[in-house]
Every structure is written in C-alpha cells, then in structure tokens.
Design brief:
By secondary structure, the chain is mostly helical. It has two domains: about 120 residues, Winged helix-like DNA-binding domain superfamily/Winged helix DNA-binding domain (Arc Repressor Mutant, subunit A), CATH 1.10.10; about 90 residues, no CATH class. About 45% of the residues lie in helices and about 5% in strands. The strands form two sheets. It has a three-stranded antiparallel beta sheet with strand order 3-5-4. The longest helix has 15 residues.
Amino acid sequence: MSRLFIKESPVMIIPSLAVKVGLNEAVVLQQIHYWPGISKHQIEGRTWVYNTYEEWRKQLPFWSVSTIKRTIHSLEMKGLLLSANFNEMKMDKTKWYSIDYEKLQEHEDSTIERPESPMEDTTIEQVAKEMDVSPLVKKIIPFDQIIHYLNKKTGKNYKSGSNKTKELIHARYGEGFSLEDFKRVIDLKSVEWQSDPNWNKFLRPETLFGTKFEAYLNQQEGKKKLSEEDFDLDD
C-alpha cells in the first residue's frame, strides 16, 4: 500500500528549516531548491529558476497569489532568496530566483530560541537525509571577511548581507578570484583614492567588485592619474 493518501507529488517541508525561517518560507525555499537540480540557467556563477506568481501557484495551489508574493518578499528581505531579471525582453517582468545557501547556512549555525523538541539538535542536512532529499549545497564564500576588510581599510560601514554586494562577490568568485584578490584590490584602491574627497566615495562594493575588478587587481602599486574610465559611475 502506498504511504500517500493520494497519488500526487507531495510538497516537502523540512521541520528544522521551518522553525528557523518560517513555515511558508521553508515550503517556498524547498520548492525553489528542487528546480536548480534540473535547471540549465547558469548566470554569474549560480543557477537560476524563473516562474511567474501564477506558475508558482500551480505548484502550491493551497495558497493565493498574494500569499506567495508575501512569502517570496519575506525571503528576499531575509537575504535567503536572490532575485533578478535576465529576460531577453524588457517588457517581461518574470522574476528569476536563486537561493543564497551561504546566508541559509548562517540561519542553521545561529542560536534561535524555540521550544524544546526531539528536533532540537537535528541539522537541516540530517533531516534532509532522513527524508531522502538532497542536502542543501554549501559553497563557502567569505562575504563577511571581504566586507569587514573593506570597512576596516576605508572607515566605511557596508553590510555584507546586501543582495547587490553578494551578487558582485558571487560573480567574481565565479570567475575564479579569491579572498586575497579582493584584499589586494581593496588595498590598491584605498591607497589611490582614500585621501581624495572627490574619489573616496568610489571605495564601495559597486565600484571595486564590478566589471573592472580584474583591471584593478593587475594595477601596479603606486598612485596614478585618475580618470572617469577608472570607475563604474552608476549610483
């Protein structure tokens, strides 16, 4: 006899994940986690999936579209879900999604007050194994170390949890750059720009970790004449 009442694909819920991020959020994360395994959309070093809210509702028919929107927005605000628009047609507003597994790992490692239960000491990976689903993939990228080093060298206060900042760092890591490469770029450009009030504002993730990252990395040490070509000027 089948262990299911109805012959229908079940929606997976990982209990420990639901405790830490919320029930609705855990359901959506698991649903999105399923799709990268078969998705071929590799962009900026990560796998993306895309669906309209109505298409997500077909997979989660027990929720309204507004509930799905609120849940996805909640995950975006928590930094657990990255969203973007890679559609060829600008009129197409279908959102693309990718799970930030490093941020999710922070939730697993953090201490969260909750009632005692048999699941108290069970990790997300252990539950996933017991339920016969693939454990969440973890690729460690030192976001905190990079941003802490940037703030220390420049006297600024950028947040490592910013989605845009994490996307930039992800993209550079996807190109094969390392923590030491990030530190070198920060060192070089800090020496060059920090004392100049007109250019100091460009000591920011958008500029340092953008498309000119490799050029900055290969720059010879010492000051040089500044020009607009050295910067990503978009605010």
